[in-house]
Amino acid sequence: MSNPSRDELRAALLASSIKEPKRATLEFFGQKIDLVQPPLSTIMKPVDPDKPPKTPLENSIDMLIDYACVPGTLERIYEEGDRKFLEGLPWGADMVRINRAVQSLTGLDLVTAEEELKNPLSLPATASPSE
């Protein structure tokens, strides 16, 4: 079987089905919610050098506000005005489920990432362009 052409690859990769975010349905304080996979534009957003970096708390609340949805829809449950309420939620199994869902949806393995940051020489070398 031959390799696909550029046009075939583009057609397959630009198909609208690829743009459908993954979702995780989970129980959150006794209610079923969907957590929707964030887009590349959110994950790779440049950091503003004039602002202090966000804390883990701020990142967690942003994730809930932006990506916690009514199951089966893209209707957000929380609004920016709910930030103070969300900051006061108790830490427990519900928050652990949210964090695990985020890790699964984004493909992040925080333990491995932290280890790689401690030992950057263990990272594989990047491929260089051919000459």
Summarize the structure.
By secondary structure, this protein is an alpha+beta fold.
Record the SSE blueprint:
Blueprint: H1 6-13, E1 23-28, E2 31-36, H2 40-43, H3 56-67, E3 68-69, H4 83-87, H5 93-106, H6 110-118
Antiparallel strand pairs: 1-2, 2-3
Question: If you had to describe this structure to a student in words, what would you say it looks like?
Answer:
With 131 residues, this protein is α+β, with helices and mostly antiparallel strands. It has a domain at 20-109: Phage tail assembly chaperone gp13-like (rbstp2171, 2-Layer Sandwich), CATH 3.30.2220.20. Helices cover 40% and strands 11% of the residues. The protein is built from six helices and three strands, in the order αββααβααα. It has helices at residues 6-13, 40-43, 56-67, 83-87, 93-106, 110-118, and strands at residues 23-28, 31-36, 68-69. A three-stranded antiparallel β-sheet has the order 1-2-3. A hairpin with a 2-residue loop joins strand 1 (23-28) and strand 2. It is globular. It starts with 5 loop residues before the first helix and ends in a 13-residue tail after the last helix. 9% of the residues are buried.
